[in-house]
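Journal club prep, shared notes

We agreed each person brings one worked example of a sequence with its structure written out as tokens. Mine is MFS transporter. I'm keeping it raw so we can talk through how to read the token line rather than staring at a rendered picture. Sequence first:
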Amino acid sequence: MTNSTVKRIKERNIGIGTFLAFAMIPMSGFATDIYIPSLPGMTHSLGISDSQAQLTLSLFLISYGLSQLFIGGLLDSFGRYRIALVSMFLFCMSCVVIANTHSVYVVYAMRIVHGITIAAMVVAKRAFFVDLFAGEKLKHYLSFFTIIWSTGPIVAPFIGGYLEESFGWESNFYFLGGFAALLFILELFFSGETIKQTVPFHPARIVAVYYEMIRTSSFTLGIGMLGLAYSMVMIYNMSGPFIIEHHFNLSPVITGYCSLFLGFAWMVGGFVGKGLISKPFVRKMNINVLLQLVFAVALWGTSLIFNQLWPILVFAFLVHVGAGFTYNNYFTYCLQRFPKNAGIAGGLTGGTVYIIVSMLSAGITYVLPAKDGQNLSFSYIVLIVASGLTMYRVLTVNRKEEAALRQGTAGVV
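Then the structure, token by token:
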């Protein structure tokens, strides 16, 4: 059982606690997207290359992903509340350190701290919903995760562009630290522990749970689709600022507006996914992948002809709508798959997704550097084709599972 000395959430505070949990969900997006307009400015201020600035994103993604693989077991064994509080405090302090250093290596170290602490915060709040809700109400809340998370990519670059223009890149991290401090104070007053019963921390048992999850083909394929979908967004995040500010010679404020516009695409995809939740799964996902491929090819063709910003915005928006649609459908499924181990399932899902994203985005931007709309379109095409192949595997697995179910039913009869 949970420690009786731990402050538990009060019944009257569940409403505001739920609001605070939702407020925590976009933190990973804020931590990556708010300083996207500042990437070119950081290269000048710190005297580093474009790839070194992009590495601050990759290091965050890697540490965020790897941490989630382990944090889930800790949250299931030691509770959500205290780990989340400590993580908020450390995140706040690391933001202050970044804003007051001129060493890229200190920035790298603090970005790794960001990944670890935000992993604890976000996974704890995902588990919050599974702890307190069940059935259709839980499904309802989980289906909002992608939509709520998308407020980060929508709002953060817009704010970051103005902060960069007015106060410099350091102000982005002061903003992040202040937001974390506010959440920390509100959590102290209104939230509390939610897990009803902890499980003993036995590494061998946790490894066995991980193994059971990983060997579930539909679950691992779902994680693969999530990674491919979010990689499409991250590819733009790592390439877009340099295309806009170097290739088109526009300001960081324009970069922020463009990211704001494309952030809405992810939210639109989430709403469409929620609206079509009852439609045949494989068919709607195959149609989605096909449309994404059409839009990516259209981006390549129009960029070749016009060499202007508008083709990037229009067709990247449509590709990102499809990515948000994919993410909404698969994320809800993966988090509901293992309710008795919500922390581990949430950590494994989110962690593996971010590891996939960090490797794919770093590898693709290395092979296809941030140069123009054509390179961006090629990056999208690679990811979309991979999604199509994964969807073919999903179809194969579904058929096998249905056949096994029919055989089992026949055996019973």
